[in-house]
Protein 1
Amino acid sequence: MYFSLVAGFSLHKVSLCCCDSVVSAVLCVTVVQGQDGWGVTYTSTKICAFKGSTVDIHCTYTYPPRINDQITAVKETYWFTKKRNKEPVDLRTDSDYTGRVQYHCAENSCTLTITDLRESDSAEYKFRFITNQDGGCFTGSPGVTVSVSDLQVRRRSSEQVELRCHSSCNVADHPSYVWYLNGQKMEEERFSLRVSVNDHNRYSCAVKGHEDHCSPPVYPPKLPSVSVSPSGQIVEGSSVNLTCSSDANPAANYTWYKENEDSPKASGQIFTITDCICVYVSCLLMSPPDPPKLPSVSVSPSGQIVEGSSVNLTCSSDANPAAKYTWYKTNGNLELQPLSKESLTFSSIQSSDSGDYHCTAENELGNNTSKSISIDVTCE
Ligand SMILES: *[C@@H]1O[C@H](CO)[C@@H](O)[C@H](O)[C@H]1NC(C)=O
Ligand SMILES: *[C@@H]1O[C@H](CO)[C@@H](O)[C@H](O)[C@H]1NC(C)=O
Ligand SMILES: *[C@@H]1O[C@H](CO)[C@@H](O)[C@H](O)[C@H]1NC(C)=O
Ligand SMILES: *[C@@H]1O[C@H](CO)[C@@H](O)[C@H](O)[C@H]1NC(C)=O
Ligand SMILES: *[C@@H]1O[C@H](CO)[C@@H](O)[C@H](O)[C@H]1NC(C)=O
């Protein structure tokens, strides 16, 4: 006996931002632009990164070696950002960044490293250097725009998975199933069981009459997770892999959706984003589609059917998406109007209800018809 997962469903929001490759070296507060030899060049001007990761912002800068016989010396370098109407300050003294910023500066270059990124770090970062020259202060503007996004897993409260009982050997034509919840026999006799993805109970199943061949206990499959590679900053023109993972048996079919779009963006476990696009994607885990298998019919209670008693006929079939059921009663070769969906319930069965019954299971991919069973109502 083994289990299969029918549909685990999960939405993961991933935002990736657009990147451009404009390099800038503009303007100083006090010194006239570039042509005099003043300038700041940033390696990239837009950087996208995920919450918790580390970002490196790099620049090189130039200045005239001497002005009016005075040799230029750099007195101070720092990075700053202007946020929430605060005056720009050296990031090392900004309490929002305490313990999270480092400068690695060499001659004419400087790298700002921000660790443990927060969404509130999304801002434009600029580099400034101050020299001994009169008014010799230069800011590289525009700066580098950093967008920090969060990788979210959203669960639908109604999210469910279907556990199905499979028998690897041939048993009776219409087997009844027995389910165990944490080792305790359950009332449920259908071949499948719907449970919440948040259900951490152990389930196992067996074919009735063959209870010694229980399936090994299982937990409902874990919600799939999405990982991003590379995990740090995403710069211009690079490709990004989103990988959806879940332990499913049989192997799951992964489909990627863009937020608010019904048609899939891609299928397969890895979704590669090669161009600069802004996307919100979700990852959907599904078992491959399957037309209905031969439906099995169960009669409850089993044994002799006595007039006036309550009887249920249940139809079940392995199908993905789940099958819809219809019951038929045949009188000789005459097929009567469909009777009911899924379960056919007689609260007080009559001898006129005797006859042959069958059901059909149908989904988008096809239909299948059960063997017919004979109901023989005896008088008390
Ligand atoms: C993305 O996945 C492809 C195929 O598995 C692999 O060749 C490539 O190196 C991956 N790229 C990154 C950035 O992980
Ligand atoms: C996964 O499912 C989609 C949609 O049903 C289908 O187009 C695709 O071919 C399937 N992929 C695999 C690997 O089964
Ligand atoms: C009905 O189910 C049987 C057994 O699962 C399968 O072999 C058969 O192809 C199915 N018939 C149709 C019409 O799908
Ligand atoms: C038949 O099904 C109904 C509704 O599902 C249930 O209340 C009733 O107990 C069942 N009766 C038998 C005999 O299984
Ligand atoms: C079942 O499938 C067959 C062949 O695909 C089709 O001709 C028939 O109309 C279907 N029956 C029902 C009840 O949908």
Protein 2
Amino acid sequence: MSPEDDKESPEKAFASNTSLHGFNRIASSPGGSPRVLWVIAILGSYTGFGYMFGSMMASYFKYDTITDTTLEFADELLFPAVTICNMNKFDSDKLQVADWSYLSLFLYGIQADIPTILALGMQPDETVNSTMTGVKIEDLVLAKGFNLSSNRMPLCLWRGAYCSEQNFTHSFGHYGNCYTFNADADNQLKQTTEGAHGNGFTAFVDIKEDKYTESFLVSGNAEVGLKLLVHDPREPPMMDTQGIALAPGNHAFIAIKQILYENHVPPWGVCKDLQLEYYDTYTLNGCYLECRSKHVVRNCSCRPYDLPGTAPSCDPRTMFTCVRAVLAQVITGDLKCDCPVPCRMTSYSTSLSFAGFPNKHTRNYLAPLLGMEPGYMADNGVVFSVFYEKLNYQKIRQLKAMDEGQLSSNIGGMMGLFLGASVLSLLEVCEYLLKRLLGFLGRTRNAGVFHVQTQEPKSATEKKALN
Ligand SMILES: *[C@@H]1O[C@H](CO)[C@@H](O)[C@H](O)[C@H]1NC(C)=O
Ligand SMILES: *[C@@H]1O[C@H](CO)[C@@H](O)[C@H](O)[C@H]1NC(C)=O
Ligand SMILES: *[C@@H]1O[C@H](CO)[C@@H](O)[C@H](O)[C@H]1NC(C)=O
Ligand SMILES: *[C@@H]1O[C@H](CO)[C@@H](O)[C@H](O)[C@H]1NC(C)=O
């Protein structure tokens, strides 16, 4: 007999030596019912494993998520940007006759020429003979709207130190001129102790309610006050749909809380960071503003003064006849914006409380020092303080309900429980299959009459041995 014939068949070698439980039992059991029982037990185990494997795969490919909320405590927190707008685009005392005529359709829905304006009792000025060709609406808003020069903001404090209009960044919004405190995302201010007193950001703004030129019936508003939004400095403010409104005659205490969101990419979540054209960071507000701008440019061939873009600025007539309708359709959802949720975002929740302002002493002694009538402050003064009440923040993370590591350890556990198998056992199976394949190839190549002949008696003796 050749050494070849001496070797056991690959099946027998595999069954006797494998680390998979049970097979060596079949190979070594004396036959009859114990072997049948072992075969049944092995089949049962493999069925159990198949079922568990299937259900684990199914639950992995459902891509379920769980939400993890943690409260993190910190020694200092980055202070957010605070944007304020007066609810008034133009101050009436800064508008001249020609401006009134130019803006009349935009502000009141009626086109009034200069003689009509004069007939309404306006004093003629040097602009009565001028035409407003080439004047852009944003230049008018900037020059004749709300600004923060000293008489409009008698007090501005950051952690007890005075600040001024130089610490604000200008932007255009739905309400005209808006000013953002702490707008530099690379150089954010920090709050290091909790609470309001002497902390955070406090300002007193004179809204000049008798200079309001807004009309609710066209595209303006009927309110008087300040709109304020606390936001991430990387995110442009959207003052018409977000923010809180503050009324004169109050001191608003705005306690803020930071919430960080981490969302998951598909297929677990829906987040996606797009590349925006006019903003560095992808944010929902940035996306909505660009979307509004695109819809208006497509239908009106111009860009509203408060939206990003490079199209020429819309004149007051187009603002009234076209832009208003398109923006209304965007807001009602008839014109769609495709803005997915960003994968990371920071938002701020606010809780407000109010105190009356001013008190008797301030009214009677401080107001005259600021050149104000005693009753003026209550009608025009908006005071607000923005601060972290607690130096902690909330982190809301979307996590995979089952990640790849958990999936493989679950499968490993089930393999151990049902099969007694590991990755190395799989290698044994592979080794066996490889031997079988090589044997098969060798047989067919050697045109194996001889092999077939030697194979027969060998398998016969093998059968005998097994029995
Ligand atoms: C405007 O034009 C009228 C008539 O041409 C002239 O009498 C008047 O002085 C002009 N007013 C100004 C401010 O230039
Ligand atoms: C703000 O408005 C006042 C008039 O109310 C004006 O004198 C001042 O120059 C304006 N400041 C800026 C920065 O435009
Ligand atoms: C405000 O601006 C002034 C001048 O640029 C600067 O010295 C100061 O640090 C700023 N204050 C804050 C709170 O940013
Ligand atoms: C776009 O403009 C056309 C004509 O200018 C108008 O019929 C259509 O309603 C406008 N669409 C929107 C969404 O305003």
Protein 3
Amino acid sequence: MVATHKISIHNTPASRLPSVDFSNLPFGKVYTDHMLIADYHHGAWQSVRIVPYGHISISPASPALHYGQSIFEGMKAYRNERGEALVFRPLDNWKRLNRSAERMCLPEVPEELFMQGLQTLIELDRNWIPDVPGSSLYIRPFLFSADEYIGIRPSENFTFMIILSPVGPYYSTPVKVCIETHFTRAVRGGTGYAKAGGNYGGAIYPAKLAQDRGYHQLIWTDGIEHKYVEESGTMNVMFVKENSLITPALNDSILAGITRDSVIQMARYWNMPVEERKISVEELINGLRDHSITEAFGAGTAATIAHIELIGYEGTDYHLPPVEKRDFSNRVLLALDEIKRGHAPDPFGWVHLF
Ligand SMILES: *Cc1c(COP(=O)(O)O)cnc(C)c1O
């Protein structure tokens, strides 16, 4: 049974589009004319609506504010020559949203609500999708508790929203990262596999300390022994070692990135060996010392493929080869970009045309 939602639309009286400089877009500061909102009351999603982008009102007693009962997603849309909107793997984001929702006691968002809401919103704000190379429309769905109750218990009322932001590149240069062996992002049994707000709030301080020392980001290690590599900031981390792609195997403290999965599928498609397994800090440092690790990069929707320039560990910076020499990461970055923009065939059926 497919339940369809009647989506009411309240158009903005005056588009802000003419005021946006698309040749000079920052990341995440510009929002489009409209946003989607849906309310969950009495066990059902209702009043799905698109309204002009703007502030919302929320109870000061909302558990989203007090206890972080809030999750989000991130995906991107591109525009092809025919003016159609191409969204990369939205059903995978929908599935992950619902995995996060389960962990945080938030209600499932039905596929129809997610996809119809997305389609209607994107159709309305289609002209906001940048067609400048390196730019795209970042899509941010999120879901939070809208109860008015400061006791700690599963909530009954919720809000689901989607906002859109035209964005330029996340990082403008290759990134400098350092291995974190004191602070923890996520631990076994925790919420690391969910895109839950609190995971990110708690990660800002350790990242800031690294930034004060000249790094862009951290490489998180496991929360128990700080011996195994997990992720880099809000990206999955991947390496090329002796012509194999190696990346930490998924567990409940690692976010299952859709970019990570896309890179793995591309590598296998090109007959490159892929190893998803534990990678110890010791193996990583040895591989950087003896140059058996030739490439390192972060993988995520916002940053796409972020080349890692150097990795700091115990006071030493280990440099990777120059970016021009990194065959795999350059090739996969380009190949994914061509698929996402509709410039190359899509053998995996990843692109959703709206
Ligand atoms: C979102 C996210 C990623 C990347 O996931 P994608 O689906 O590729 O965008 C990786 N790690 C963390 C912690 C994240 O929040």
Protein 4
Amino acid sequence: MHKNSVIEINQEAHKRNIDFLQKVFGKKVMLSSVVKGNAYGHGLAEFVQMAFDNGIQHFSVFDVEEAKIVFDTLQNKVTILIMGFVADDDIEWVIQNQIEFFVFERYRLARAAKVAKRLQQKAILHIEVETGMHRTGFEMKNIARVAQFLVKEQKNIKFKGLCTHYAGAESISNYYRIATQIEKFNQAETIIKSYGITPEIKHSACSAAAMMFPETRMDLVRIGILQYGLWPSPEVFVTYLNTKKVKKDPLCRVISWKTEIMSIKRIKAGDFVGYGTSFMATDAMKIATIPLGYAHGYSRSLSNHGQVLVNGQRCRVIGTVNMNMLTVDVTEIDHVKKGDEVVLIGYQKESVITIASFSDYSNQLNYELLTRIAKTIPRKII
Ligand SMILES: *Cc1c(COP(=O)(O)O)cnc(C)c1O
């Protein structure tokens, strides 16, 4: 087992986040916890068990592989919704286990109906409408045909949801595009209803849309980044704060990432550190090597820029981040020794390294940073 570092997942922080979100969205809106990308790096199996203990009843994943992990952990105590990829071979498993899934093309729709008929068990579908993201979704001109098919196949298909996804609700510069998408979604619903059928639920909002466009909340919101205690963008955060008197972040970061010093060295002025010449000491220095690198998800773009905490003080990454190691400047820290704790994300004494701070010294989005944290690192619920 990997012992170089450990990821801690804070159950209380997650509980506070979902309580806050449920209060903002209202009791009538179901909160689906989006756990694709290894639960945004938090560790899928560990995270969903914890989220379930915190009251979450609905999980959204990207593909069958993730759905299977959630299913193995929680069986049918929760609803599992696949928003993305289902291979042909997997449709049977999906239908048999009442896993719900997005359908965005005729082929999959026909296939689902056929397999459901053979299994004599209904496929539970969410029809995704193309409203302007131009990724997946039925085109508006095909919605009538889809509706006719659903009417014809009522014995084999349960029309559970009508849904769409917005193309960048976290930025106000996309305002017009999102507003147009909302309008199109409503048109699709009207067309479908004219065939005498209605979906059980409608849903469209991710974190940003749910905060910025309340009308997108509908019956269910698919919440990823916010439940992990992070804002989709600084703009969404500022927009939220502007509606409040108290200017305090209501969200708590759920993840922390810790490791320890592997070795310490003294170098003199003029010495280069690590591969190449990107860092040269201008004075005598004390440096510490840490057993983590880009293979574990600590991006190479943090070379000479990243910061970590040692003994409650900020230390800068110097030289290039290697595959399995990186080096930090601990010159200013007294009594530092091998085995001392190093914090990459989270608190140490009074100091903190936030996830947002990473985007200040590399061009990584918080989403990207989190999902790149290696799966092999043990996740511990605290
Ligand atoms: C990832 C994803 C979400 C959640 O996005 P957040 O910004 O993390 O809330 C919602 N819906 C779909 C279709 C997604 O792919």
